[in-house]
Design a protein that fits this description.
- This is TVP38/TMEM64 family membrane protein.
- Pfam families: VTT_dom.
- InterPro entries: TMEM64, VTT_dom.
- It is found in: Cell membrane.
- With about 250 residues, this protein is mainly alpha-helical.
- About 75% of the residues lie in helices and about 0% in strands.
- Helix 5 (about 80-125) runs antiparallel to helix 9 (about 170-180) and helix 7 packs parallel to helix 9 (about 170-180).
- The longest helix has about 45 residues, at about 80-125.
Length: about 250
């Protein structure tokens, strides 16, 4: 009995599928997704819902739901300080910090996944500048340590750090673990400030406000020093010595 003859594939369909899955097409899709998210944030301002229109309900379910909404809003470029203040005002210091950190990790994971799947293949060939190559090498070789420093000193915008890490060769586990650990101090300061906003003269509010100011100043100093360090010209390689001729 003769074996069935395989049907020839349609070259037009093959070309269309390759074009749709090409790095440039995926990068265009990523740009469209990010532009749509930013537009929705500007038009509807979801941070207002989280800060003032959230239902005054307690319990673990409300904290979990807020954390999920926090993550989605963070991935859509809603400023994290506003969300952190809202978490503290709605749930207090303990539960608010839990929701904020969980939402931060979720939002970072969403952004990292989008950047890795849709943007990495198209953007990595463009890393030709000295500064870009240095930053990529640092994130790729020392992922956890580099991301932990970025999260501890907020000199780099949260979304920019997510997508830079996605374009690099950093793994998911170091990225998410460094995000979860590194964002706790700064997030806790904002959450406590939000929880104590009605008592601006209380020691907890003053300490949290002072920590926020110091972290912003420290992040600016670290970013300034890193920028100048990367701009320094590389030291010339030592010239090979010529062999001494025998007498």
């Amino acid at each position: 009995m003769l074996a069935p003859v395989p049907r020839p594939t349609d070259p037009f369909a093959v070309r269309c599928s390759r074009a749709l899955l090409s790095p440039r097409s995926r990068l265009s899709l990523l740009a469209l997704v990010l532009l749509t998210a930013a537009t929705l944030v500007v038009l509807y301002e979801p941070q207002r819902l989280l800060s003032s229109g959230w239902p005054q309900t307690g319990g673990a379910g409300a904290v979990l739901l807020f954390g999920l909404a926090y993550g989605v809003c963070t991935a859509a470029f809603v400023p994290r300080p506003v969300l952190n203040l809202a978490a503290g005002a709605l749930f207090g210091s303990g539960a608010g910090l839990t929701a904020a950190v969980a939402g931060t990790v979720l939002g970072a994971g969403i952004s990292f996944t989008l950047g890795r799947v849709l943007g990495q293949d198209a953007l990595r060939p463009l890393l030709k500048g000295r500064w870009l190559q240095a930053a990529d090498g640092q994130l790729s070789r020392h992922g956890f340590r580099s991301m932990l420093a970025i999260r501890l000193f907020p000199g780099v915008p949260f979304a920019a750090a997510n997508y830079c890490a996605a374009v690099s060769r950093m793994g998911y586990v170091p990225f998410l673990l460094a995000t979860a650990i590194g964002t706790v101090p700064n997030t806790a300061a904002y959450v406590v400030a939000g929880a104590r906003a009605g008592e601006p003269g209380s020691p907890a509010f003053l300490i949290s406000a002072g920590f926020i100011a110091l972290s912003v100043l420290g992040g600016a100093v670290v970013a300034w020093r890193k920028r100048h360090a990367l701009r320094r010209p590389a030291a010339p390689a030592p010239a090979d010595r010529e062999p001494v001729a025998a007498a």
